[in-house]
Amino acid sequence: MRAHQIMTRSVISVTPDTSIVEAANIMLKRHISGLTVVDDSGKLVGVVSEGDFIRRSEIGTGRKRGRWLRFILGPGKSASDFVHEHGRKVSEVMTAKPVTITEDTALAEIVDLMERNNVKRLPVVRGDKVVGIVSRANLLQAVAGLAREVPDPTANDDHIRGRIIETMEKNDWCPFGLNVIVRDGIVHLSGVITEERTRQAAVVAAENVEGVKKVHDHLCWVDTMSGVYLNSPEDDDLAKAG
């Protein structure tokens, strides 16, 4: 399998001038752990993630180094830490020049890149524009839904996946972080919903795409006020059976 067969196409991005507070609120609202950073032309310039908010002055978690270590590291490192802990804009905390992949990157290479660079997500680019993102969650979904003896995805499966995503993204009820995996006409839907009626709409939308044989629902419901989440009824049943 390759990146385009599991990636999340609806990528949420911010700009280098986006405030730290706004970026954090977007991640909380969308239930995602990272954002791509693009300039005014749409070119990828960085990635900001939950890890970039761990060492912050607001919550008293800034690095505390002894005088001897500060002397060894030099003033430059202390200055960089200060910017990261007190910066007000995304550009001041993001990872610049992030590792990227293309739509044709094989999953084995994706896993290797994640491990080698100690990252949890990789932007998928076409030229210098972001067209998707592959996270550890996407890989987990692929394993959970497709680790059985079935044929590899075909061109028709890719066409079905594209049609499903296109159909759902036209609607305001489209699940956050929608991911669609198709093998041999069998569809696995995952993402986050905040309204239970959205679940049925998503399943029906997938079922109406020509070539779909069956739809598996892995959509997670999240309460936006409390943060409480529930797995899909199908996943709950599988967990009980296991």
From TrEMBL:
<protein>
    <recommendedName>
        <fullName>CBS domain-containing protein</fullName>
    </recommendedName>
</protein>
<dbReference type="InterPro" id="IPR007055">
    <property type="entry name" value="BON_dom"/>
</dbReference>
<dbReference type="InterPro" id="IPR046342">
    <property type="entry name" value="CBS_dom_sf"/>
</dbReference>
<dbReference type="Pfam" id="PF00571">
    <property type="entry name" value="CBS"/>
</dbReference>
<keyword id="KW-0129">CBS domain</keyword>
<feature type="domain" description="BON">
    <location>
        <begin position="156"/>
        <end position="223"/>
    </location>
</feature>
<dbReference type="InterPro" id="IPR051257">
    <property type="entry name" value="Diverse_CBS-Domain"/>
</dbReference>
<dbReference type="Pfam" id="PF04972">
    <property type="entry name" value="BON"/>
</dbReference>
<dbReference type="InterPro" id="IPR017080">
    <property type="entry name" value="UCP036990_CBS_BON"/>
</dbReference>
<dbReference type="InterPro" id="IPR000644">
    <property type="entry name" value="CBS_dom"/>
</dbReference>
<feature type="domain" description="CBS">
    <location>
        <begin position="94"/>
        <end position="150"/>
    </location>
</feature>
<feature type="domain" description="CBS">
    <location>
        <begin position="7"/>
        <end position="65"/>
    </location>
</feature>
